[in-house]
Amino acid sequence: MIRKIAISAVSALTLFTGSAWAAGEAKTVDIPFSFEGPFGAFDEHQLQRGLQVFTEVCSACHGLKFLRIGALAEMGGPMLPEEQVKAYAKNLTVIDKETGEERTATPADRFPENNGAAAPDLSVMAKARAGFHGPYGLGINQFFRGIGGPEHIYSVLTGYEENPECAPDGIDGFYYNTGFANGAVPDTCKDEAGHPMIEGSWIAMPQPMSADQVTYADGTEASLENMSEDVSAFLMWASEPKMMVRKESGFKAVLLLGLLSVLLYLTNKRLWSGVKGKKKVA
Ligand code: HEC
């Protein structure tokens, strides 16, 4: 029975894997983020650094229109002091929903929308993209590593490279990126069947940062890798500011259900203890 279930599960998974690979491949770097796994938690210092990167670099083009500014002070997030969040809000301009006019933001407002028309909003980007495909195979799988949204963002930020040999001049206004599979690929980089022969593709976002783009207050080295990891973690939190609450209540539920099972087992045993003896006689 168990074998049958296992076999059908494996074949169902195989079917899904096939279609996922067909979408094209990007190089996704696996990062052991602190928030992974059932007991993982966001590192507030990393989120603070990620907020700094977002503010100083990404917000020039990208918005975070679903994230409430006040969430920056809440448990499970960057946990900035209230005063600092107020000061942060003061630096932002939002459009008042009632008057339709621009005004200074308050912690009750959401982050502003994007500035660059072509730059997508990043509020849920970490959940909208998959860095890993398929449940198994080639060591890359969602089953053990998760969907890989923050890994995808990290890989795009660190994936800019010189144009490959098949297209030395690249594409005007686009940038070759090994971590980004959904962009344009010149015909000279495709095989006869039209499949890309290179990793990644061309993206419309110019490389947004290089080493030492920001100066971290906590002394962390501002390498491209560190800044990319921090901002990816921050964007994961932004897409699910209540992740810690969810994990905690899930854990409590499992504990309670476990306790309930034990009690039910004991009750059951006790209730039937007399009955079982008599059965033998009959
Ligand atoms: C100069 C403007 C600009 C800046 C600065 C910028 N971006 Fe972008 N970004 C874009 C544009 C334009 C796109 C759309 C690219 C495309 O679809 O080809 C984009 C796309 C993205 C995507 C989507 C990739 C995907 O899978 O679709 C992510 C993630 C992203 N940017 C993250 C960031 C982060 C993080 C920063 C800050 C470190 C940043 N960007 C800074 C302009 C910018």
Brief rundown of the structure:
The chain is 40% helix and 4% strand.
Uncertain parts:
15-23
CATH class of the domain at 29-143 and 216-266: Mainly Alpha
Strand ordering within the main sheet:
1-2
Write down how many β-strands occur, each being a DSSP E stretch of 2 or more residues: 4
Structure ligands: heme C
The CATH architecture of the domain at 29-143 and 216-266 can be named as Orthogonal Bundle
| Integer average pLDDT | 87
How would a crystallographer describe the biggest sheet? Answer: 2 strands, antiparallel
Shape: globular
Reading the helices and strands in chain order gives HHHEEHHHEEHH
CATH topology of the domain at 29-143 and 216-266: Cytochrome Bc1 Complex, Chain D, domain 2
Q: Give the number of helices.
A: 8
* Beta-strand content estimate: under 5%
- By CATH, the superfamily of the domain at 29-143 and 216-266 comes out as Cytochrome c-like domain
Helix content: 40-55%
- Please compute the radius of gyration using only Cα atoms: 25 Å
How would you portray this structure in words?
The protein has helices at 2-21, 44-56, 82-90, 125-128, 142-145, 149-157, 224-239, 243-281; strands at residues 93-95, 102-104, 175-177, 201-203. It has 282 residues and is mainly alpha-helical. It has a domain at 29-143 and 216-266: Cytochrome Bc1 Complex, Chain D, domain 2. Strands 1-2 form a two-stranded antiparallel ribbon. The longest helix has 39 residues, at 243-281. It is globular and about 85 Å long. The protein starts with a helix and ends with a helix. The relative contact order is 0.17. The model is unreliable at 15-23 (pLDDT under 50). Heme C (HEC) binds at residues 53, 57-58, 60-62, 116, 118-120, 122, 125, 129, 153, 156-157, 180, 182-183, 203-206, 208-209, 231.
